[in-house]
Write a structure and sequence with these properties.
This protein has 289 residues and is α/β, with parallel strands linked by helices. The protein has a single domain, classed as Aldolase class I (TIM Barrel, Alpha-Beta Barrel). Helices cover 46% and strands 13% of the residues. The protein is built from 14 helices and 8 strands. It has an 8-stranded parallel beta barrel, surrounded by 6 helices. Helix 5 links the parallel strand 4 and strand 5. Helix 7 packs parallel to helix 8 and helix 12 packs antiparallel against helix 14. The model has no long low-confidence stretch (mean pLDDT 97).
Length: 289
């Protein structure tokens, strides 16, 4: 089973002023990733604004990225939902594509429904059974309204150790994540990768035993975040603290799109209900750059 470790970029989706996908900008961004020492790319996750894209758009974007990257980096595909039956149907429809083109899928906790821990367990077991490739669980309570507890993560893993390869932990609860790492370390032959989902605490979690970081900031600062992850460079992490704060102060991916626009890689366009950063935050980011 694939072990997902190191630095992964949660790739943004560039748009044009008319809100169509900007494939030229996407190629420019991919070039920075292919030369930026990252270990893998996460396609169509939260940062990629997949929630506001049609099924046809998502298919075109993921196929374009597969063609452009052409095997030079592993790809992880965001595949989540709050209707388990529909999600299973979607996975089955992509079965051959997933097997040929992706190292793993990243599947977020069902949102809005607020399932119990038992509901989360049964949902992710169904995903594991349907997926032809490894699955990374994705815990982000601030977006989903439900917290996937460490004991539930381990229960899912133990039910499907051949399919559950990791968990992206973006709860922001350092003690909870360290508890999960401890459970993993005390489980014999456990190959579960605990991955930080927060740029600002990557070093602390790596030192505690996390396997890496799925980063928003690495869209723009790939080489530096490679050093933060692979060298556990605490000073460099501290140097980025204010930038990381600004990236998220008005929501993601507004901040990283402001940075990428200032770098001339993309236009600063987001799809409603998301909007670009306020003038104040854009000015703060420009000054910090």
């Amino acid at each position: 089973m694939t072990e997902i470790q190191g630095l992964g970029t949660a790739l943004i989706t560039p748009f044009k002023a008319d809100m169509s996908v900007d494939y030229d900008a996407l190629d420019r961004l991919l070039d920075t990733q292919l030369t930026g020492d990252i270990d893998y790319i996460v396609v169509l996750g939260t940062t990629g604004e997949a929630a506001t894209m049609t099924a046809d758009e998502k298919r075109e974007v993921r196929q374009h990225i597969v063609r452009y990257v052409s095997g030079r980096l592993p790809l992880v595909l965001g595949v989540g939902g709050n209707n388990t039956a529909q999600l299973i149907s979607d996975i089955e429809a992509m079965r051959e594509e997933l097997k040929h083109d992706y190292a793993a899928i990243l599947s977020v906790c069902p949102y809005y429904n607020k399932p119990s821990q038992e509901g989360l367990y049964q949902h992710f077991c169904a995903v594991a059974e349907a997926s032809p490739i490894p699955v990374i669980l994705y815990n982000v309570p601030g977006r989903t309204g439900v917290n996937l507890l460490p004991e539930t993560v381990m229960r899912i893993y133990q039910a499907h150790p051949d399919k559950i390869c990791g968990v992206k932990e973006a709860s922001g609860n350092v003690e909870q994540i360290k508890h999960l790492i401890g459970l993993k370390q005390s489980t014999a032959d456990c190959r579960l990768s605990v991955i930080s989902g927060d740029d600002g605490i990557a070093c602390e979690l790596m030192q505690a035993g996390a396997a890496g970081l799925i980063s928003v900031a690495s869209n723009a600062f790939a080489k530096d975040f490679h050093k933060i992850v692979h060298e556990k460079d605490e000073k460099l992490q501290a140097d980025y603290a204010e930038m990381v704060r600004l990236l998220f102060v008005e929501g993601n991916p507004a901040g990283i799109k402001t940075v990428l626009a200032h770098k001339g890689i993309i236009g600063n366009y987001l799809r409603l209900p998301l909007v670009p950063n306020s003038d104040k935050v854009q000015q703060q980011i420009a000054q910090l750059l």
